[in-house]
Design a protein that fits this description.
Blueprint lengths: L16 H11 L12 E7 L4 H17 L3 E7 L2 H13 L6 E2 L6 H6 L8 H10 L2 H6 L1 E2 L2 E2 L2 E13 H6 L9 H11 L1 E2 L5 E6 L6 H14 L17 H15 L9 H4 L5 E7 L2 H9 L6 E4 L12 E10 L6 H12 L2 E3 L5 E3 H8 L7 H9 L7 H5 L4 E3 L6 H16 L5 H16 L4
Parallel strand pairs: 1-2, 1-3, 8-9, 11-14
Antiparallel strand pairs: 3-11, 4-5, 6-9, 6-10, 6-11, 7-8, 12-13
Helix pairs in contact: 1-3, 2-14, 9-17, 17-18
Length: 441
């Protein structure tokens, strides 16, 4: 869910960085001047490089190109793991794409580096009005909006109904004490102590299961990773300590086994519960087949009964490069893609981007669109993720956010694997992250 994700199974990227840079070298020759007979050609660089994602994006781009003579759009794509580097390298070489689709975590870094252009006032007003607060927050830095939110991911609790029923549990946990009880009752080990079933999935596989679910629990406890101004860490707090102690207990009591890859173990019935992002539903259905009927989704448990729900949201945005020679045309295309309406099967009228995301099992930050799409036959397991748009907290996206997230992940993994105590992990994170976010970028 998506930062430096080592590969949630949804992302099967085909193009490597060198190929992207070779393509970039040709971009300037095809931009066009806009003179009669020579249309403007805008390049759009994303991570939608293969499979259903590539097809889903290309379809509306083809529609635009078939209906607009003056401005054409050409898509380019790289692997997600190369995307940030590609933005920075191409920009430094004067070969940046006209339209870019960054992970919202990088917004502050890209603004500071002069890659992203602020949205014009009329577009910014439209975005603030029509999207959820979490989606707008992810696409904004210091109150300024820098693009249209596209893919928006909220976090919730996935659970295996069959495993819970076998443990005598009739419903998913609502509170942390219930979560610990359910994890203890569903965990199973063989006579040699090897994990057969994790009660609650903690995994060092990638950011989505390491940092993502930790921040979702932190938000549910009313805490935050950094202060509102982004100037220092806020994790060394009662809420942060409570989350780390909860995860530490789950590991030490054997209910969680961080070395297990939950992306493989949950579909095979070897994990009873795990916190994850909504995109995973689109992968689980074809992977699990008939066994997908055992999958349920519920809000992230809160520390105590009566606490207000909160969770994490991550996402992507589409924005215009500061180096784009035709910004008005680029924003016109983005409004058409993200605000223009189209009719879909079932009669709903939604934006093209909402239809695109729903087609790949994802969400946009337009809650009304997503309700209309789910109401016409969507997966009911997506509804908790949709409901979470109303209370999700966007991932902090200041200039040092990516490095801060990497430092957080390293220390969480050290806690889970017994290399650090709760106290030491909190102290180390505070020292390292405070130094990173205070840097003069």
């Amino acid at each position: 869910m998506t930062g430096s994700r080592r590969g949630p199974s949804r992302r099967h990227f085909a193009l490597a960085l060198p190929s992207a840079l070779l393509a970039a070298g040709c971009a300037g020759r095809h931009q066009g001047t806009g003179r009669p007979g020579d249309p403007i050609v805008l390049t759009l660089l994303s991570h939608y490089s293969s499979g259903v994602l590539r097809k889903a994006l290309q379809e509306p781009v083809d529609e635009w190109n078939a209906t607009h003579d003056r401005v054409k759009v050409r898509t380019e794509a790289v692997e997600f793991t190369d995307l940030l580097t590609t933005f920075m390298v191409r920009q430094a070489a004067g070969q940046g794409a006209d339209i870019v689709q960054p992970y919202c975590l990088w917004t502050g870094q890209l603004v500071r580096a002069g890659v992203l252009r602020p949205a014009p006032p009329e577009h910014a007003e439209e975005i603030r009005r029509d999207y959820s607060a979490a989606a707008v927050g992810g696409a904004s830095v210091a109150g300024g909006v820098y693009g249209y939110p596209t893919e928006v991911q909220t976090y919730a609790l996935y659970y295996n109904t069959r495993l819970l029923r076998a443990a005598g549990l009739g419903h998913p946990p609502h509170t942390w004490p219930e979560l610990e009880e359910a994890a203890a009752r569903t965990m199973r080990r063989d006579r040699y102590g090897n994990t057969l079933v994790q009660g609650f999935g903690l995994s060092v596989y990638d950011d989505s299961t390491t940092v993502g679910q930790t921040l979702a629990l932190l938000n549910a406890a009313g805490g935050g990773f950094v202060t509102p101004d982004g100037g220092r860490t806020a994790l060394d707090s009662p809420a942060g300590r409570a989350v780390f102690e909860l995860e530490h207990r789950l590991v030490t009591r054997g209910a969680s086994a961080p070395g297990v890859n939950v992306y493989q173990a949950f579909p095979s019935g070897q994990v009873a519960m795990v916190i994850g992002a909504g995109w995973w539903t689109g992968s689980l259905k074809p992977l699990m087949g008939a066994d997908y009927r055992d999958v349920g989704v519920a809000p992230v448990p809160v520390p105590a009964a009566g606490d207000r729900h909160a969770t994490l949201s991550t996402g992507f945005l589409l924005g215009v490069n500061t180096a784009c020679r035709h910004p008005d045309a680029a924003w016109e295309f983005l409004r058409w893609l993200n605000a223009g309406r189209t009719r879909v099967r079932g009669g709903a009228t939604v934006t093209r981007m909402s239809a695109l995301q729903a087609a790949v099992g994802s969400l946009t930050g337009r809650a009304d669109d997503m309700r209309a799409l789910l109401g016409s036959g969507g997966d009911p397991n997506m509804r908790p993720f949709l409901d979470a748009l109303a209370y999700a907290v966007p991932e902090p996206n200041g200039p040092g956010a990516q490095q801060a997230k990497t430092l957080l992940r390293t220390n969480i993994e050290a806690l889970w694997t017994g290399q650090q105590s709760v106290d030491r992990a909190l102290r180390t994170i505070r020292r390292q992250v405070d130094r990173e976010v205070a840097r003069s970028w």
